[in-house]
Each structure stands twice: as structure tokens, then as C-alpha cells.
């Protein structure tokens, strides 16, 4: 028979059930933190969308609540206006060109940095990565001079090229990490099968890189979609304005129609939110690639 | 098909030389296994033959042509990898036909050759599946199919069965052997598993620290290991190695162990009295009873494996393994008596490790 009195005392920390209690407490803290973050993200979005349904006086008196009277015409007028669709079209052209070029240059450069050692490759990589530290706004004057010299002021390319240049560092970093984590045996097998670097890139690397392509694509799409300073400096004609500049139409010298600004913003950020939700799975896979051994 | 020849092949990573002038001749159609412990350079050597690794010195000749500077494709070799290395986004058929597609073969030709290889490997029902939808054994068969399709001069296998479970490994071993008997392509097979090497290869090359320790048929290596390394590496369970000194027993050469036990050795051994040596006793040569030199000790462990039982007993303070019939009644702690014929006692110089 077991002598209970002589048994060693049970340490509270190692007692059965204490582990579950600790996990439950941790989970409660985690949920509280996540709910707070969600509130910080969601409240401005909902306030913006609701603000678009208010009158200006309603918005001033009741910025976060439900509209006293739903002003559907705020959204309706914007949607039926030609200017809105033109600016959305401009934003789309600039964003698609930016995404395509950022993906093309970023993926090809990252492939070289991931697989080919050449003289100065590390320095060149660091040179690209240093670009991550400089937002385009800090170099806006020299950028403008360069774009003017190239004759690209007031063209889509005047916005696209700087955006691609400033997005390349980030895309190289993400692509390179992803490519380096592809199994090296695939490279060996493809080499034995008769691939060179180009064929390996095209036939093997790219088809296996959909998550990171989606990640880089979305990041550069959102960056371009929301870009304000670059188009403001580089574009003169209203017909080429992307949507962030379109907001200016609602700003008067003495008065700003904030309810229309909010309705306009809601309508223009909708496409990026939809794209993000569609590609969410790939984005998370791309950002966490290589974090654990597969 | 082709012969493969290595002349003083070397590989160095900076100042560190890992392959020290290996020379080999592999006949047309021969199946050669490169074996050795992890880090001995066997995979590096295979990758050098494949063209996936540059060589630092020497010559690699395939089908009478020096291939040092040729790409893997130009060498006309095919390789099967440990991790299968199948392209995850391609179907089985696409994986197998990829190299033909790259070489510009027509769709009809690709389909014909892929189907032929698939039929040979029983892969026809799996042709439209992706690698993720296949079991380990099926993936390995696809990897072999990919190699067969291109009809290469040389097959290179880099530990192809290491990722499979024990049962599947035995099955795939038979399939590789059957495949080689069918296609008769020159094959070089890297493994750290000496059983795989023994069962598959016409010839085994034992590597250690980038050098060839010994090469020969499986039975040559088993019966006449050139040194302690090969003796310990070939055979399962491993050969028992015991320290002793050359002495005479009844007018014949014998080895005296530390506890005074004398073990008779073959009289043609080149030994001198008082010479410190190591003797090697294969577990399967230690039979219970007193037919040869009787060796007695207390049983330390009994490991039944079914048909056979491994008895580990104490001999001169060292554990010695003997293989006995599965039905043999042996208990832990009891006395075990085994004997061995003088011709079956291997003798090695204790300093150099060379067989005497």
C-alpha cells in the first residue's frame, strides 16, 4: 500500500492541471491584446465608412456614432461621377505597372542573389537593401529633377519608375529569403535534367513561388494605390490623377466637405481590402516562409 | 551505357581537402556502391561525377571522354536523390518527361518514353498525381522513372532509400536490383548502409575521410577486410574487435587476450611473437559449443530477433556479440561458451590497423 503521508508534497507549478490553467490565462491575455489591435484597426475603417453617410454637421457633432440621417447620395454621387472612375483607372494603371515591374525586377535580382555568387554580390545586395531605409518622400527633389530630365513628368512612368525603384529593396529581400529556402535538391535535379539558371528560374522557381509573388504583389499594390506625394509632384494634368489626389477636389479654400472625403476614401480603399482578403492565405505563407523547417 | 573512370580526383573547399586523390574504374554495366560513414566524402564524390560539384584536381572520364568541364546534362547521367527532388508543381508524367521536354523532344516521343518507363515501374495509374499525393515509395519510383526516361549512360543514386521506412526500404532495394538487371546501365550508388551495398552492388568501394580504404566484391570485403575500418564497417552486427598479443599455444600461433584466453589463428598470418594486435571475430562465426577455440564468458544481454538471437557475453572484460539460432536457450547472467575456427579469426596490426 502506498503511504500517502510519506509521499513528497506536490509542487503547485507541476501539479496536474496547472499547465492547462497557465495556458488558459495566457490565451485570455492573448485574446484581449488581439481584440485591442482589432479595435485599433477596425474602428477607423468603420468610422470612415459611416462618416461617408453623414452630413457635415452630423459628422462634426457625432464623429464615431451612427448617422442621424443616412445620406446615400454622398456615395451615389461619387459612384456616378466620371472623375471617380477616371481616377480609379489611373490608380489601377499605375499600380499594375508598379506591381508587374517590381515583381519582375525583384524576383530576377533576388534569384541571382540567392543562387549565384559573383564578385561584389554581397555589397550589391546590401546596396539594394539600404534603399529600404529611405522613403521616396525624402528624395523627392532629386527624383523630380531626374524624372524631368528623362521627360517623364506628367506621365504614368514618372510615378511608376520611382515606386519600382523604392520597392525593389523590399521585394529583393522577401524573394531572396524565399528562394534560398527552396530545397537545393530541386536545383540539382533541374540542373541534371538540363536546366540552366534561366530555365530553373522560369520552370521551377516561379511556379513554386506563388505565395511570395502574392505577398510582394500586394505590398507594392497597396503602396502604389495609397501613394500621394509622388503623384502630387510628378503629375500636373488632372486627367492623370490617381484617386489620392482626387480627394483634393473636396477641399475648398475655406471649407472641406469631410463627409464626401470619407465616402471617397471608403470607395477607393474597397478594392485593396477585397484583394487583400482574396490573397490573405498566400500573403501569410509568403511572409512566414522559411520560418520553420518544412 | 558507359564505363566511368576517376583519375586522382580531388576536392578541396578552400584549404580543406575532402577528397584526396580517388582513383576508380567502373566497368560498363557494373553496379558499384560507394559506402562509408557520414562525412567520408561519398556524396561529394558522386556529385563530382554528376557535375554538380567542381573538381579541384584529377580527371573524370565517362565513356572514354574527359567530362571535367561538362554540365550534368552533357555528361549524359541521371541522378536519383535522397529527398526524391520531384518538382512539386508538376504531375508524375510531367516530372518524368521534364528532361525530354527541355531537350526538345516531340510530345509523342515524350509520351511514349514516359509511358514505357511508367509501365516498367508500375506507375501508370499515378501519372496525373502530384508528388504530394504519393507515398514515399511511389515518389522514389517516380524519381527512378525520371532517371530511366532519359536513357542515360550512367545512373547515380545518392542514398535513395534513406527516407523510407525499413519495410519499404527492403522492397525498393529489390526493385532497384531488378531494374538494374533489366536495363543494365552502369550505376553508382551511394549509401551509408552496408547491407544495401552488400545486397545491391557488384562491387563495393569503402571510403573513409576522402580516401578509398578498400574495394572489391561484397564477399571479398566481408571475408578479407584490408584493415580495421573496413572490418568494422562491413557486416551486421559489426565484427567484434579485441586487443591481444601474439603468443604460441600448443606449438601453434595464437592470440593471448588480457585474461589469458588463447585463441588460435591461421598459421599463414604474418605475425611475430609478442606483437600487439587486434583480432576480429564475426558474430556469425562464434558458434555455441567447443568445436574450435572455446571462449567462455558471462551473458550480458540476450537480443532475440526471431530466426536468430544475439548473445552479448563478456570476454576478457570486453563485450562480444555472437549470433545463435533463435531457439537456442540462453539466459541473461548464465555462462555462454562459443568457439571459432582459427581460419575465421581476423588479425590486424594494432598500430596501423592493417590486416596481417
From TrEMBL, chain A:
Pfam families reported in the protein's UniProt record: BPD_transp_1 (PF00528)
Name used for this protein in its record: Raffinose/stachyose/melibiose transport system permease protein
CDD domains, sorted: TM_PBP2
Organism: Neorhizobium huautlense
Predominant location category: membrane
Domain of life: Bacteria
Domain called ABC transmembrane type-1: residue spans: 88-279
Family indicated by similarity: Belongs to the binding-protein-dependent transport system permease family.
Cellular compartments annotated: Cell membrane
Transmembrane segments: 28-53, 92-116, 123-144, 156-175, 258-279
Bilayer topology term: Multi-pass membrane protein
Keyword list, A-Z: Cell membrane, Membrane, Transmembrane, Transmembrane helix, Transport
From TrEMBL, chain B:
Matching CDD domains: ABC_MalK_N (cd03301)
Keyword ATP-binding belongs to the record: yes
Organism this protein belongs to: Neorhizobium huautlense
Cell compartments where the protein resides: Cell inner membrane
Gene3D superfamilies on file: 2.40.50.100, Nucleic acid-binding proteins (2.40.50.140), P-loop containing nucleotide triphosphate hydrolases (3.40.50.300)
Matches recorded under NCBIfam families: PRK11650.1
Domain of life: Bacteria
Record family assignment: Belongs to the ABC transporter superfamily.
Membrane-topology descriptor: Peripheral membrane protein
GO molecular function, one term: ATP binding
Segments forming domain ABC transporter: 4-234
Keyword Signal: no
Protein name: Multiple sugar transport system ATP-binding protein
Alphabetical UniProt keywords: ATP-binding, Cell inner membrane, Cell membrane, Membrane, Nucleotide-binding, Sugar transport, Transport
